[in-house]
Design a protein that fits this description.
Elements (H helix, E strand, L loop, with lengths): L2 H13 L16 E3 L16 E3 L2 E3 L3 E3 L7 H17 L2 E3 L4 H5 L16 E7 H5 L3 H11 L3 E6 L1 H6 L10 H11 L4 E5 L6 H9 L4 E3 L8 H8 L2 H10 L6 H8 L5 E4 L6 H10 L3 E4 L1 H32 L13 E3 L1 H4 L7 H7 L1
Parallel strand pairs: 4-5, 4-11, 5-6, 6-7, 7-8, 8-9, 9-10, 10-11
Antiparallel strand pairs: 1-12, 2-3
Length: 355
């Protein structure tokens, strides 16, 4: 097995446990309260969860977020997850597709036979994208049938990872090139540390229309690499384990920039997704709970877990008095003090919170 493949399998083992969670920092989604409507005047069955995503439509605002790829074990996981996405009409994201750039036959990325209609998101690191031609990336997207390409931004993870990248110059120019030249949408994605308003504005300025927060509060990828690190980087990893912008704060920072936002990073259930939608997200993404469901009960465990999350989103929408999950962004909400500090002044979200 290659070094990359070995690392991917180590990631799977670590991420199926709580050992790599943030220790103190939370997503701040618990600081969002939707105001209860005791007279919703509609049936649960009438709630519309349909959601736009990268030019397609999901039946519910849920993405099985990026986890893995590149090994035989990852192939088994991804095929199970993608088939659940197909059955439920939700989104599915690959983990890093870097192995495909090095070996076009790398396993873990062939899912279209089990998910012909699902929204599938590709994934490549910005450093690898910088070193690749647009034609090579477009070919990778076409071979795997991806509807969009996530370009992940992971400087904190890389500087801790043994042998990781330490030169992040040209990232924005790379994203701009791919926005101009790729035949599919580009999604700018973090990997556990969140996206700030400043980064969001820079992305908008180069034509990005979709982002994935991957905020702090769930899996710490700094923590993942710390547990794998050589002694030289262990101290750095321990120091920066808690680094990042909480998921709810990242959504709040980005909410009025005209971006479609997938809220990922420590999202646990459908109520968390409802809270993220209320802050301005378009959809929510869940990773580790689905991985642990697969470890415990295989595909059936993932299917049941995803169905439960969708039911929870529907109930949250009903109890907030909305007929569509997309309407949660205009429903009353109450925000706690820790999250309120992250909401930019003068924005529509600030006006709702202060009303």
């Amino acid at each position: 097995m290659s070094d990359i493949g070995r690392r991917k399998d180590e990631h799977l083992d670590l991420c199926a446990t709580d050992a790599v969670a943030f220790k103190e920092r939370t997503t701040l989604l618990d600081e969002v309260d939707l105001v209860h409507d005791a007279l919703p005047e509609r049936a649960v069955s009438e709630i519309d969860l349909s959601t736009p995503l990268v030019g397609r439509t999901l039946r519910a605002p849920l993405v099985i977020a990026a986890m893995t790829g590149g090994t035989a074990r990852a192939a088994e996981v991804n095929r199970a997850l993608a088939s659940v996405a197909e059955e439920l009409g939700i989104g599915f994201g690959f983990g890093s597709m870097r192995p495909l750039l090095e070996d076009p036959s790398a396993p873990g990325y062939a899912v279209r036979d089990v998910a012909p209609n699902a929204v599938v998101l590709g994934n490549i690191g910005v450093v690898q994208a910088r070193a690749s031609t647009t034609a090579a990336l477009a070919s990778m997207v076409e071979r795997t049938g991806c509807d969009a390409l996530c370009v992940h931004l992971n400087p904190a993870m890389e500087v801790i990872q043994p042998g990781g990248d330490d030169d992040f110059r040209g990232g924005l120019d790379t994203i701009a090139r791919l926005v101009r030249e790729l035949p599919v949408p580009v999604v700018a994605k973090e990997t556990g540390c969140g996206l700030s308003r400043s980064v969001g504005q820079r992305l908008v300025d180069v034509g990005v229309r979709w982002v994935d927060t991957s905020g702090a509060g769930g899996t710490s990828w700094v923590g993942v690499e710390t547990l794998r690190a050589k002694a030289r980087t262990r101290r750095l990893g321990e120091l920066f384990w808690e680094w990042g912008i909480p998921t709810a704060a990242s959504v709040a920072q980005l909410a009025d920039l005209g971006l479609g936002i997938v809220a990922t990073g420590g999202v646990r259930h459908g109520l968390d997704i409802g809270r993220a939608l209320a802050l301005g997200a378009t959809a929510g993404g869940i990773a580790r709970p689905f991985l642990t469901a697969w470890v415990d009960d295989g595909r059936q465990g993932v299917l049941q877990a995803a169905e439960t999350v969708i039911d929870e989103i529907r109930v949250a929408t009903l109890l907030a008095g909305a007929g569509r999950s997309s309407e949660l962004a205009s429903r009353p909400l109450v925000v706690g003090p820790a999250l309120r500090r992250w909401i930019p002044r003068g924005t529509a979200l600030a006006a709702r919170v202060d009303a």
